[in-house]
Predict the structure.
Amino acid sequence: MSEFAVKVENLTKTYDSLIALNDVSFEVKAGDFFGIIGPNGAGKTTLLKILYSFVTPSSGIVNVSGFDLNSDYKKIKNLLGVVPQEDNLDEDLSVFENLMVYSMYFGIPRKESLRRAEELLGFFDLSEKKRAKVISLSGGLRRRLLIARALVNGPGIIILDEPTMGLDPEYRHNIWNKLKVLNKSGVTVLMSTHYMDEAERLFKNIIMLNHGKIVVKGDISDVLGDRYKRGINETRSLEEIFLDMVKK
Ligand SMILES: Nc1ncnc2c1ncn2[C@@H]1O[C@H](COP(=O)(O)OP(=O)(O)O)[C@@H](O)[C@H]1O
Ligand SMILES: [Mg+2]
């Protein structure tokens, strides 16, 4: 297996005159819990959509687990689990059916799909809701199902675009705990957020984006510690670093 789960070099995306991503380069080590931080419009979704081949980059190189995105898209698809920013669950189907339909999409044999769906429902505390229609679920339960669905193919890398946005503290904590367990089991987690408390709590390494450019990159304790070492203010949080960055 490649040492890097993801390697991005000089990635740029333009929409007409707007530069959504501007010469972005970074690496995500296998097994990392990697965070993409930035305000609304920073380019987080664009970056993640490029990684899961939903958006075509204007230029640059993207490599996932040693495979080039241009030539090996099909191989990469099987290695990734994707939690998009917009909930695209099938509302007319049950919780269980949503998982099964997704398994079919990956061509997973039925017996294995059934086993995997039960296991994921258990892990995400959704077993009681197995037969419930998605339309009847609360926002927090839908989000848990969205993450469960991303795991049906047993991916080594999971990409989550603001998975806790708008959730109450209990649901947020629940999702954090599940993601930590997954990461401990060896899954590389690549996730965006604009919640700084969440970032401090979860991420090992980060990039901060602003107007499509990387403005901070590195180990999160170095990012926080560097601020401390420079004596700016020992109580500075990531949130304050973030606010400084956005002002520039
Ligand atoms: N399909 C699109 N067409 C035109 N502009 C887009 C499109 N998608 C995103 N953008 C623009 O690209 C920038 C980055 O957006 P996005 O990646 O969604 O940021 P974030 O996820 O950090 O909020 C924004 O200015 C947004 O308006
Ligand atoms: Mg976004």
User: Anything to note?
Assistant: The longest strand covers residues 4-15. The chain has a mean pLDDT of 92. Residues 2 and 136 are 42 Å apart (CA to CA). The first helix runs from residue 44 to 51.
